[in-house]
Amino acid sequence: MTTQNATIRVGVGGWTFEPWRDTFYPAGWPIARELEYASRQLSTIEVNGTYYSLQSAATFAKWRQQTPDDFVFTLKATRYATNRRVLAEAGDSIERFVRSGIAELGAKLGPIVWQFAPTKRFDAADFGAFLQMLPPAVDGVPLRHAVEVRHESFKSAQYLELARRHRVATVFTDSADYPSFADLTGDFVYVRTMRADKSLKDGVTPQALAQLAACTRAWRDGGEPDALPRVEASATPGAPRDVFLYFISADKEKAPAAALALLKRLREA
Question: What is the pLDDT of residue 216?
Answer without folding.
Answer: 98
